[in-house]
């Protein structure tokens, strides 16, 4: 079989779910192919049919769903008509799938070795002894340190990135011809995401395995895929080579997705609002007549009342759009100018601490939050009776000043202390040491009676809205309870009126008040969390990963909502995220954390235009850009491994164990956070040398 021949052909695939309320046409006439050794990306919003299409390919559709028509040919064999024995051999042997959440795919009570060995032995390709040797080799190939020890571990002993590597090892264990990866990097840090993508690219090159990568992150798709299929409302709306499709989209939906993504390489100073797709995707139980994107399309014409076919519009390109099929062109994507570096007015001062300098440079009343040398250590249980008590250094001496009305971005890998610092600020945790002052009042060790009135001024939006919303309470009760607790409303009628007002502010209808959290989408639940934070009219909001794992359009809507609310209510934000493009887009200043320490602080534009710390530079270089041509030629600062344990932190500079320019001095001496340029602070012995 040559590389030009398809190994997988999907023709007019239709997968429906038959429920009591009607037929849900989740996948409704999808056709595409995958060539040998090719990397194909499938993109689209949640509910577009991406994952159902992937599961249909390997016949993983459970009742009440079933494939009602279409053909799935793998190397000429029809998967749809395979019997149970042939299907068992097909799955895992010839085609493997890696799912979005590895913890739901790995058995929590079985060691990694048993799960990997079982996968290989079940297909009869290896003996148990040979399979165990191969399991160790595969884990090492996936970049897991000490693979012999790792195979004897349980899944919960690994981080999210490490568990995803185990799933990739399992997927490649039988050297499949095709690997389907469904959102394998969702919610991972940019550095771990970059490592996973590098791994997929290397495995594709070394084993010749074809890859179908499903993702809502266009930067991830641009980084690895040679061809892209765009899905909307259960059907393919555009397909083509990655470089041409991302640079010149031929369907309004693709164009809108690209415009909704903030980019590191394009930033317009002063303009924070993103272009979003208005409305919501249509109901798969009742697809509209004509073009399914028509109700949300800014370029719709009269012909869109008729359903368009997926038609070739250029060599290797096809689109389901009457406008571009008739020769029309869509506006250029983006076009924003790159921001010039910010020019702070303050002069560099040698020997002055960051906290003292920021406080001294502000006029009376401007500093809303002042954090000085804050530490949070969590004592851990002893491993043996006579052993020493271990301590986890979550936050280990952080200085931070936030001015009224600004947005400060907080970035860093998982485990660096971002969320812990946010919880310390709103006093969900009590600091081990240091000082926290809010509005000039010391709240470091304030008792509950003192803190309670401050809850009205300090609020937090959590990363997982479903985990932070009470599933047994309606939205009306969730939003009304804090109003009653703080005495902000006098009776039930006033509370209900205020709840409806809050729902309107965050873009939800009044009917949402009577529903429970599980009845909403992820983006809608995040809006409810924002409404709850706004209920008590706060001044300062800690937003902890408020857009993690959301679709690009929902993400853009949440960003625009936060920006609108800040302008409308004069809010101050501490914005925690791992998506650097989003952080640059919304932030005035950015703080970079690593292993509980501040590595760099600077205005947003200055930090991205001229990063001084090697860690910051590695984070920026790892963040993908939704442009395949740029991704092919970008230089990367590659980091190996994951951050060291916060229980046993390295001596000297905490980043030295992964730093490409570390020297002997870095092991002996922790560099202080010093002002290298006006307003630009860095904790590095060799700033700007990388």
Question: Explain this structure to me?
Answer:
The chain has 690 residues and is of the alpha/beta class. Among the domains are: 244 residues, Rossmann fold, CATH 3.40.50.300; 188 residues, P-loop containing nucleotide triphosphate hydrolases (Rossmann fold), CATH 3.40.50. The protein contains 25 helices and 24 strands. The strands form 4 sheets. An 8-stranded mixed sheet has the order 6-7-8-3-9-10-12-11, with helices on both faces. An 8-stranded mixed sheet has the order 18-19-20-15-21-22-24-23, sandwiched between helices. It has a 4-stranded antiparallel sheet with strand order 2-1-4-5. It is globular, with a radius of gyration of 26 Å. The two termini are 45 Å apart. About 2% of the residues have low confidence.
Summarize the structure.
With 690 residues, the protein is of the alpha/beta class. The protein contains 25 helices and 24 strands.
Task: List the topology elements.
Elements: E1 6-19, E2 22-35, E3 39-43, H1 50-57, E4 65-74, E5 77-78, H2 84-90, E6 95-98, H3 102-105, H4 112-122, H5 128-141, H6 147-150, H7 160-172, E7 178-182, H8 190-207, E8 210-214, H9 218-224, E9 227-232, E10 235-241, H10 242-247, H11 252-259, E11 311-314, E12 317-319, H12 322-325, H13 354-361, E13 367-379, E14 391-403, E15 407-411, H14 418-425, E16 433-438, E17 441-442, H15 448-454, E18 458-461, H16 465-468, H17 475-485, H18 492-505, H19 522-534, E19 540-544, H20 552-569, E20 572-576, H21 580-586, E21 589-594, E22 597-603, H22 604-609, H23 614-622, H24 628-633, H25 664-668, E23 674-677, E24 680-682
Parallel strand pairs: 3-8, 3-9, 6-7, 7-8, 15-20, 15-21, 18-19, 19-20
Antiparallel strand pairs: 1-2, 1-4, 4-5, 9-10, 10-12, 11-12, 13-14, 13-16, 16-17, 21-22, 22-24, 23-24
Helix pairs in contact: 4-5, 5-7, 7-8, 8-23, 17-18, 19-20
């Amino acid at each position: 079989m040559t590389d030009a021949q398809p190994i997988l052909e999907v023709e007019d695939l239709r997968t429906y779910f038959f429920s009591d309320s009607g037929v849900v046409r989740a996948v409704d006439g999808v056709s595409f192919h995958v060539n040998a050794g090719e990397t194909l990306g499938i993109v689209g919003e949640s509910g577009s049919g991406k994952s159902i299409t992937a599961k249909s390919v390997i016949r993983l559709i459970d009742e009440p769903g079933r494939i009602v028509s279409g053909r799935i040919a793998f190397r000429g064999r029809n998967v749809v008509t395979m019997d149970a024995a042939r299907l068992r051999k097909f799955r895992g042997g010839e085609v493997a799938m890696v799912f979005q959440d590895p913890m739901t795919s790995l058995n929590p009570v079985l060691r990694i070795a048993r799960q990997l060995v079982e996968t290989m032995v079940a297909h009869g390709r290896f003996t148990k002894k040979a399979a165990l040797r191969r399991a160790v080799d595969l884990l090492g190939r996936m970049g897991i340190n000490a693979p012999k020890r790792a195979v004897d571990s349980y899944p919960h002993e690994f981080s999210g990135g490490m568990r995803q590597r185990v799933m990739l090892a399992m997927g490649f264990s039988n050297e499949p011809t095709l690997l389907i990866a469904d959102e394998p990097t969702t919610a991972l840090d940019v550095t771990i995401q970059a490592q996973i993508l590098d791994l997929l690219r290397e495995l594709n090159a070394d084993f010749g395995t074809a890859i179908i990568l499903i993702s809502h992150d266009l930067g991830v798709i641009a980084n690895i895929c040679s061809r892209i299929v765009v899905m909307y409302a259960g059907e393919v709306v555009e397909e083509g080579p990655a470089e041409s499709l991302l640079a010149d989209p031929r369907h309004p939906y693709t164009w809108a997705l690209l415009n909704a993504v903030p980019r590191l390489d394009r930033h317009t100073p002063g303009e924070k609002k993103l272009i979003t797709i208005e409305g919501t995707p249509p109901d798969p139980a009742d697809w509209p007549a004509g073009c399914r994107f028509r109700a949300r399309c800014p370029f719709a014409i009269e012909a869109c009342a008729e359903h368009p076919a997926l038609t070739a519009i250029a060599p290797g390109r096809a689109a389901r759009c009457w406008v571009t099929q008739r020769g029309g062109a869509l506006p250029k994507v983006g076009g924003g100018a790159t921001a010039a570096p910010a020019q702070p007015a303050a002069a560099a001062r040698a020997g002055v601490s960051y906290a003292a300098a920021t406080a001294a440079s502000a006029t009376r009343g401007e500093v809303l939050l002042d954090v000085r040398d804050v530490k949070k250590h969590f004592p851990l249980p002893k491993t043996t009776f006579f052993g020493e008590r271990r301590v986890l250094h979550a936050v280990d001496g952080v200085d931070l000043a936030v001015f009224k009305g600004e947005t400060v971005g907080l970035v860093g890998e998982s485990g660096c202390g971002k969320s812990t610092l946010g919880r310390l600020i709103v006093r969900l945790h009590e600091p081990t040491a240091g000082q926290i002052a809010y509005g000039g009042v010391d709240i470091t060790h304030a008792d509950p009676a003192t803190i309670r009135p401050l809850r009205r001024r300090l609020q937090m939006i959590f990363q997982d809205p479903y985990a932070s919303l009470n599933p047994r309470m309606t939205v009306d009760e969730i939003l009304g309870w804090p109003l009653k607790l703080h005495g902000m409303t006098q009776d039930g009628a006033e509370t209900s009126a205020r709840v409806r007002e809050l729902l309107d502010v965050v873009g939800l209808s009044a009917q949402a008040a009577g529903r429970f959290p599980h009845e909403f989408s992820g983006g809608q639940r995040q809006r409810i969390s924002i409404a709850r934070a706004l209920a008590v009219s706060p001044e300062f909001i800690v937003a902890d990963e408020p857009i993690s794992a959301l679709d690009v359009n929902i993400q853009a809507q949440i960003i625009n909502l936060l920006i609108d609310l800040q302008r409308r209510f004069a809010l101050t934000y501490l914005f925690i995220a791992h998506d650097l493009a989003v952080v640059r887009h919304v932030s005035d200043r950015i703080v970079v954390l690593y292993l509980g320490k501040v590595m760099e602080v600077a205005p947003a534009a200055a930090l991205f235009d001229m990063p001084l710390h090697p860690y910051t530079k590695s984070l920026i270089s790892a963040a993908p850009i939704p442009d395949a041509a740029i991704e092919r030629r970008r230089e990367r600062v590659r980091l190996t491994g994951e951050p060291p344990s916060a229980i046993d932190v390295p001596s000297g500079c905490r980043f030295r164990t992964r730093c490409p320019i570390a020297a002997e001095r870095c092991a002996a001496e922790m560099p202080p956070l010093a002002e290298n340029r006006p307003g630009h602070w860095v904790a590095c012995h060799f700033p700007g040398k990388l």
